[in-house]
Fold these 2 entries.
Entry 1:
Amino acid sequence: MSASTNLKPPERHPDAPAPGELLGPHYDECFGCGGGQEHGLHLAARAGEGVSVTAEFTVKKAHQGAPGLAHGGVLASALDETLGSLNWLLRTIAVTGRLEVDFVRPVPVDTKLHLDAKVTGVKGRKIYSTATGRLGGPDGEIAVKADALFIEVKVDHFIEHGRDEEIKAAMDDPDQVRRARAFEVNP
Ligand SMILES: CCCCC/C=C\C/C=C\C/C=C\C/C=C\CCCC(=O)SCCNC(=O)CCNC(=O)[C@H](O)C(C)(C)COP(=O)(O)OP(=O)(O)OC[C@H]1O[C@@H](n2cnc3c(N)ncnc32)[C@H](O)[C@@H]1OP(=O)(O)O
């Protein structure tokens, strides 16, 4: 993805989770990180140094595209989710505007994908970030990589656009409201 000019380096929020801390799901029904999705990715992201995260995702039978191999869209979802979790460290709510994925190696079922992501720069509401997914370990061979542009939004983005049924359930859940509002305390 062509990098924008005049990017500012990202600033880790003072209340961001400490390096090594698990970030936890942002929404229980999220396909990427939620515990409530049987065939979801159940991706668990952990805060790193600066504005970076690491995450792991194990490819299951439900994630196949070709026999015994992960579907590319599922791998893109794992990268998207990992990149999205960087927003916990900025304490900013943001959605993916653009995601560019390179599929470098096939990823077999039962493989654990070791992901890492970092924010490379910020300009206004635009957050530029990059991620890799490796095989065999955190320093293993690169199987997938992505560059992304996230756009900062208000929590109202979800309330306005989400289906009423799910928004009502989320707003009736005090834990969910707390998680969403925690992002709004921006300096
Ligand atoms: C209380 C209950 C609440 C419940 C909520 C629950 C939880 C909330 C908490 C956290 C959850 C947060 C996120 C989810 C996390 C992880 C999941 C993974 C992430 C995703 O999976 S998330 C889903 C997929 N995602 C979308 O569903 C976005 C659909 N989309 C839109 O909603 C709009 O499109 C939007 C908002 C993106 C922008 O719209 P907009 O009107 O606000 O702003 P605008 O268009 O002016 O763009 C501003 C500047 O970005 C540039 N720009 C925009 N898009 C670009 C592109 N594609 N390429 C290059 N540049 C682009 C413009 O060129 C301009 O640049 P400039 O300022 O320089 O002119």
Entry 2:
Amino acid sequence: MGQISNRPPLMSLRNVNLWYGDKQALIDVSFDLYPNEILAFIGPSGCGKSTALKCLNRMHDGTRDIRLTGRIEMDGQDINDPCIDPPMHRRRFGWVAQKPNPFPATIWQNVAYGARLHGLMRSRAELEAHVEDCLRRAHLWDEVKDHLHDMDGTELSGGQQQRLCIARALSTQPDVLLMDEPTGSIDPIATAKVEQLMLTLKTDHAIVVVTHSMMEAKRVADRVAYFHLGRLLELGSTDQVFTAPRTKEARRFVEGKLG
Ligand SMILES: Nc1ncnc2c1ncn2[C@@H]1O[C@H](COP(=O)(O)OP(=O)(O)OP(=O)(O)O)[C@@H](O)[C@H]1O
């Protein structure tokens, strides 16, 4: 499945099937996720990209009428094993949604929340330094440093809000960032900033990004997974999937003939 480094995979999915009630949304999906890579999920609407993303951090837990078979491992351990504590598992992931969704709270509180919830910092001074570090890593510090406590996250521009959400996602010191169309509702300049940020963040995190933008996948992804009607039809280097797709469905999609 297109190993990209000598390091073992951080996550492995094997023969994963998922049903919403009677409807099967994922069919026999297998792939590995490596540390420090950006893996993009592409494919037509409704093909299972977001569903696959949510399997990684067990975001489906608690959703009614869902059934999952197959095996999902992280660091070699079955993530759905009863001995895994779901909140502890979820802490290893940062989630960034399409629409920026900061909490209706100050910029500082938005970023401090995750670290506080999980008791990650030992003192107020450590927490202050951590909030600054997350905001710097999200390329937002210089724009907000004078308004950490007197401005709500919701008062920032759309692009700034999305970088705030990324800073918030970094707060729990995740191994993996899951991004569901992170530039889908921001303007081109803000998009360029978020894409640049993703390329910086992969030095410390694996990133899985769902995108409808072929250009974005080409600009940021190391590997691309093409989903089609619930199946992962093709997985390869970004260059291979875009220049020499192996399946006719992926070829039609990257040529813009299948939406
Ligand atoms: N909570 C749910 N309950 C029932 N069916 C669902 C649910 N979520 C998704 N589905 C269905 O599962 C299939 C896969 O949906 P999913 O959102 O994963 O696709 P996607 O590739 O991310 O789509 P898009 O690109 O439009 O966001 C679709 O047919 C969708 O209607």
